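Morning F.,

Quick status update on the modeling queue. The single chain you submitted on Monday has been processed. Sequence for confirmation:
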Amino acid sequence: MAARTPLKKVPIHLQSAQSRMLIKGGRVINDDQSFYADIYLEDGIIKQLGTNLVVPGGARVIDARGKLVIPGGIDASTHFFRSWNNTSPVDDFYSGTKAALAGGTTMIIDCVLPERGQSLLEAYNQWRDVADVKACCDYGLHVCITWWSDKVAEEVEILAKERGVNSFHVFMAYKDQYMLKDVELHSIFKLCKQLGAIVTVHAENGSLIAEKEKELFERGITGPEGHLMSHSEEAEAEAVYRAIMLASLTNAPVYITKVMSRISADVISESRRAGKVVFGEALSAALAVDGSNYFDKSWRHAAAHVSSPPLRADPSLASYLTDLLANGDLQVTSSDNCTFNADQKAVGLGDFRKIPKGFNGVEDRMSIVWEKGVASGKMDACRFVAVTSTLAAKIFNLYPKKGRIAVGSDADLILWDPGH
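Structure tokens below.
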């Protein structure tokens, strides 16, 4: 075995100087206020915030005049390891988190997806083994509950109490694969309420969708348009309502992922006004493109947009979802980044039911929300920070270490040029 190259030892005073940074003259944006201030950070932590700061020598100085200084984005839904039907996405924890950082996102929350019957702890350890080596930014993990038993309940408790997992994802879709029964969902809400964890829900009526898929395929509809036609807005809205009802029976909060229809968004808005503790997530893709792409003459182009729930054909939906993010009826924007290349998508050539579901967006999410929200005049910079970072940090128990610029918070800072 070849001898290892000895590590270079850096004098302790130089190590300290390398970790010091002073950001001067920027406009600091939090979700509830904005102000001009200098920020001194050391060892990845914000140490001072204000004007006329007295800082140690040797700090690197960054001129932020004319720029916004915002908390790093938090993408609350990514898939960088293993996803639909045990398929590996093109973006892994290295390339995916590298792209996240390039777009202003400094933390992602990935989804651990055990196969039906697999130990949740085993799957969690698989994700950790890969992510710990490859991730370029901070990350957290949702753990999907894809089946239910006493053993699974025990593992959920271990994950919450000993591994720090505080969010568990369930499916009301994917019949005969990941879909859970209502009585199982009720048990999960009850347990997570006791553990202080939150349940995130993929809300679509899987039984109705499976029946419609079968019907359309038998009628000869095999292309990507069949995906949109089989996943109706009503099937999404019904499941959203049912998820909120099941959660409310146990006085548990619920987080609805991937809100992709006007009527589903309205169900969430009305439930919040009725006092239900429900949070809604919009995808950056849904703010930028629509379901007309499923009817494109190019099969590859159409298949590239296949996701679940699907993008909707309504061209006004993107603006409507942006309005709800701006007024507080929806709380979080995520990318749900789950990228498959053309060859992987081609598995579904001739049968839309087999097309791997997912698209990209982790790098573009922040820019899309800025363009559709702030540049359009629908939200201010503080609300932009709220829906791209702060509210996710609060919901998933990361705040105020994440999602906030304050003394003691992590120095996950982005210099944002509002002119570009």
